[in-house]
Specification:
The protein has about 350 residues and is α/β, with parallel strands linked by helices. Helix content is about 40%, strand content about 10%. The protein has one domain: TIM Barrel (Alpha-Beta Barrel), CATH 3.20.20. It binds S-adenosylmethionine (SAM).
């Protein structure tokens, strides 16, 4: 295992058994070797910069019923909200002033925010902030809808595949959602020229180390530009309320392995990671992550975007806490970059 960590040919994966052993190991020395290699790899591509994205959670209405998610349609405990176009523009204005050059519009699959309305939003954002990237993360849509948003100026799209195993997908989602359609969406997004992010939850119910090995193989094959991965955290009003959360150590191992197999990937230290551990963001960066996504949503609504229990949304998880985030990154030898932070790989590699 050590030889592979020290000399992974870019993008290579170790044999299945070795990969599973690596995912399961608690050997401190081996793990510090893994994290050090992941850091070197990210530094070769992105230096010690940490890119920031301003996250605008603009609606928590959702037509879907994903079993793990706190904003699922049938959760009657969720207080629903939808930001207006003007509120979204105000969030972006504040973010721009704070130094953000990427806005991520994330939400449930809200039928009110249809193709036309999101298209209008993208156009307005690109017109007012031409030097900024716009990332969309609003779930599964038709190719035509994705095409229109791309034409309106959207640069990136985040759609976690959630699991690379269709059977496991069926355990996490109701029958009307299909793994095949997720894959269709991801392929359409890539073909339309978006910088595409996929990803999965670590420790989701029913997930084994063999599933995680499969995730890594899937990523190597799909070659996304971004990977969003964080621990699964139970939410009290879902059918997985009594399940245990994904662990810090497994999440860090997955981050480092993703960095080794996709050296130039944009890899966030997620809010979920910052939620399960107070120093989760720092540990994520030290395991190879290079992106942080502070929250720009107005405080009152932020509280209602309850994907899981006790979601961190203050301090350095909040856009207004950027100074704190900068200080925390500097303490570990990294610095927050003011750049847009696009993917830096070879175009013809994708
Ligand atoms: N509706 C869009 C979509 O489906 O891509 C974006 C919003 S969705 C809530 C964003 C991500 O939150 C999901 O892809 C899922 O991985 C994550 N998520 C939802 N519930 C979670 C939980 N209980 N623990 C950790 N992550 C969760």
């Amino acid at each position: 295992m050590r030889e592979w960590i020290e000399q992974p040919a870019a993008g290579d994966l170790p044999p299945e058994k070795e990969l599973i052993n690596l995912l399961l190991t608690e050997d401190e020395e081996l793990l510090s070797c893994l994290y050090a290699r992941a850091r070197r790899m990210r530094e070769e591509h992105y230096g010690r910069k940490v890119y920031i994205r301003g996250l605008i959670e603009f609606t928590n209405f959702c037509r879907n019923n994903c079993y793990y998610c706190g904003i699922r349609r049938d959760n009657k405990q969720t207080e629903r909200y939808r930001l207006s176009e003007q509120q979204i523009m105000e969030c972006a204005q504040e973010g721009y002033f704070l130094g953000f050059r990427t806005f991520v519009l994330q939400g449930g699959e809200d039928p009110w925010y249809n193709t036309e309305r999101v298209e209008r939003l993208v156009r307005m954002l690109k017109e007012h902030f031409p030097d900024c990237a716009v990332t969309l993360s609003v779930g599964e849509c038709s190719r035509e809808t994705y095409r229109r948003w791309r034409e309106a100026g959207a640069d990136r799209y985040l759609l976690r595949h959630e699991t690379a195993d269709p059977g496991h997908y069926g355990m996490l989602h109701p029958p009307e959602l299909s793994w095949e359609n997720r894959m269709r969406c991801l392929n359409d997004l890539k073909e339309l020229g978006y910088q595409v992010g996929c990803g999965f939850m670590v420790g989701s119910p029913g997930q084994t180390a063999a599933h995680l090995a499969r995730e890594l193989r899937f990523l190597k094959e799909f070659r996304p530009h971004m990977v969003g991965l964080g621990p699964f955290i139970p939410q009290k009003d879902t059918k997985f309320a009594q399940e245990t959360a994904g662990t810090l150590s497994m999440t860090l191992k997955c981050l480092a392995l993703v960095r080794l197999i996709l050296p130039d990937v944009l890899l966030p230290a997620t809010t979920a990671l910052g939620t399960i551990a107070g120093n989760g963001t720092e540990l994520g960066i030290l395991a190879g992550a290079n992106v942080v996504m502070p929250n720009l949503t107005p405080a009152e609504e932020r509280r209602k975007y309850t994907l899981y229990d006790h979601k961190a949304c203050t301090g350095s998880e909040a856009a207004e806490g950027l100074a704190e985030l900068k200080g925390r990154m500097e303490k570990i030898g990294y610095y927050v970059s003011a750049e847009r932070g696009d993917w830096k790989g070879e175009k013809n590699d994708v």
